[in-house]
Amino acid sequence: MARLRQEHSVVTRISFVAHSLGGLIVRSALTQPILEPIIPKLHTFLTFSSPHLGFLFNPNITTRAGLGVLRHVIKEKTCLRQLVLRDQPNLSECFLYKLSQEKGFSYFKHVVLVSSREDGFVPFHSARVENLLHPSNSKVGKAFEEMVQNLHNEMCNTHIVRLDAHYNSRIGGLSGLLGRVAHILALDSAHFCNLFCSLYWDFFLV
User: Fold this and answer.
1) How far apart are CA 51 and CA 162, in angstroms?
2) What is the pLDDT along the chain (206 residues), one digit of tens a residue?
3) CA 77 – CA 26 distance, rounded (Å)
4) Whether 33 contacts 4, CB under 8 Å
5) Which pLDDT value is given to residue 42?
6) How many other CB atoms are there within 10 angstroms of residue 183's CB atom?
7) Taking the model in full, what pTM does it have?
8) Which residues of 137-158 are buried (b: 16+ CB within 10 A; e: fewer)?
9) What is the structure's pLDDT at 183?
10) Which of 67, 81, 98, 130 is least surrounded by CB atoms within 10 angstroms?
C-alpha cells in the first residue's frame, strides 16, 4: 500500500490473479478499510480453482473422506472448517456465508473464473460460482443456494467469464486419485500459463 501511495499518479489499473484459497484471500482483503484507496483502480480478477463456495458437495469421495477426518483431528476453527460451513453454529454466521454478503467481485471490470472437472480438491461449481445441478434440501444446501444468489446478485453488473480447463492429466497414485494434479497444474505448467496469457491478454488491457 505504501508503494501504491507513492506511485498514485502512475498506477492506473490493478488486477489480481489468484489460485485456490488465494481467491478467498483477495475477496476477504477487499473488505478491509486499508484497501479502499485501490478500489477505483481495480480492473480484472482472475481465479484458478478457487473455492468461492467452499468445499461443499464435493463429488470426489476420497477428498470428502479426507476432509472429514481432518475436521475431527483439527478441532480449532481452521480454514478447513470455514470451507465446509462448520466454523460457527449458525450457518449465517459462518465466514464463507458472511463473505458472500460482502462486496468484492463487483469492484472489478472483468471477473474470470477458471475451473476444471479434473480438479478433485475444489468442486467445479464452487470455482465457477454456480448452483448445484441437483440442489440439496438440507440446511447446508439452502445456505449454499443463498450464497450463490448473494454472489450472483453482486456480480450482475460485472463482466463474468467462466473457463473450463481440461488438462488431460493421467497421473496415477494418490495425487491422481485425489485430483491434486489438475488443481495445481495451472501453476506448474509453463505451457498452460503461456497459452492462457496469449489467448486472454485482453482481460488485462481492455
Assistant:
1) 14
2) 666 666 555 788 999 999 999 999 999 999 999 999 999 999 999 999 999 999 988 876 655 555 555 555 555 557 888 999 989 999 999 999 999 999 999 999 999 999 998 888 899 999 999 999 888 899 999 999 999 999 999 999 999 999 998 876 555 555 555 567 778 877 877 888 888 888 888 888 86
3) 20
4) no
5) 96
6) 25
7) 0.86
8) eeebeebbeebbebbeebbeee
9) 82
10) 98
SS3 track for 23-79: HHHHHHHCCCHHHHHHHHHEEEEEEECCCCCCCCCCCCHHHHHHHHHHHHHCCCCCH
Q: Which residue reads 477426518 in cell numbers? A: 69
Compute the distance between CA of residue 152 and CA of residue 182 in angstroms, rounded to an integer.
26
Beta bridge partners of 42: 14
| pLDDT of the residue at 11 | 82
DSSP string, the chain: -HHHHHTTTT---EEEEEETTHHHHHHHHTTSGGGGGGGGGEEEEEEES--TTTTTT-S-HHHHHHHHHHHHH--SS-HHHHTTT-SSSSGGGSHHHHHHTS--GGG-SEEEEEE-TT-SSS-HHHHHT---SS---SHHHHHHHHHHHHHHHHHTTSEEEEEE--------HHHHHHTHHHHHHHHH-HHHHHHHHHHHTHHHH-
Grid coordinates given for 65:
473422506
